[in-house]
Design goal:
Layout lengths: L2 H5 L3 E4 L4 H14 L4 E4 L15 H16 L3 E10 L20 H12 L10 E11 L8 E11 L15 E3 L4 E2 L5 H7 L1 H16 L1
Parallel strand pairs: 1-2, 1-3
Antiparallel strand pairs: 3-4, 4-5, 5-6, 6-7
């Protein structure tokens, strides 16, 4: 099925019940001016899929297939997280449930700070990278999901800064800008973030195939 064929269905399910992600995606989709409406899976009473993959790609595909199977519509899913080299890539695919309970941002941030504390060295930044993988399936058994990936590099602060965003944004320091991700406006963040980059690739793919 071509890009124009699935677009003709007019609706695309967003496989997420994370309000922070939904808000960012709604903003990003609005900037694309695509002839489709995007509906979050929660509005269709679709619960979260069981994320038992071992990579961002696997989990994104699992979530997209689940939403498509439950809705009968094409679906797009995001799997994203924070990877810290000095922690062997953790929290990685477990970013949203790093402290045990899914979506507890405060607990996740606190655990990350605690894990990093004994590893910090004077004047040596701890590097980290946000990763976003988008998976688009045209139907639940789509044999060729389309994958779009964005990464965003930065450093980790010793204490939260900023009131915007969600997840690990208050700890994610952007040295080139001198602010944290949580101090960026919505417009500023979505121009440069991992999710914004992945969505730009998604948009470009539609334009190229239309």
């Amino acid at each position: 099925m071509s890009a124009t064929a699935w677009l003709s269905k007019k609706q695309l399910v967003l496989a997420s019940n994370n309000q922070g992600k939904i808000t960012e995606f709604e903003y990003l989709f609005n900037t694309l001016n695509l002839p489709i409406s995007v509906i979050a899976q929660g509005k269709l009473d679709i619960e979260d899929a069981i994320e038992d993959g071992l990579s961002f790609v696997e989990n994104a595909i699992i979530k997209a297939r689940h939403a498509s199977r439950q809705s009968g519509l094409p679906a797009i899913a995001d799997d994203s997280g924070l990877c810290v080299s000095i922690l062997g890539g953790a929290p990685g695919i477990y970013s949203a449930r790093y402290a045990g309970e899914h979506g507890d941002d405060a607990a996740n941030n606190a655990k990350l700070l605690q894990d990093l504390r004994p590893l910090r060295q004077d004047d040596k930044p701890i590097e980290a990278m946000f990763v976003c993988v988008l998976a688009l399936v045209e139907h639940a058994d789509d044999p060729l999901p389309k994958i779009f990936q964005g990464t965003w590099s930065g450093e980790l602060l010793e204490a939260p800064r900023g009131e915007h965003g969600f997840g690990y944004d208050p700890l994610f320091w952007l040295p080139e800008l001198g602010i944290s991700s949580a101090e960026l406006t919505k417009v500023e963040k979505n121009k440069i973030s991992h999710r914004g980059q992945a969505m730009q690739l998604f948009s470009a793919s539609l334009k190229n195939q239309a």
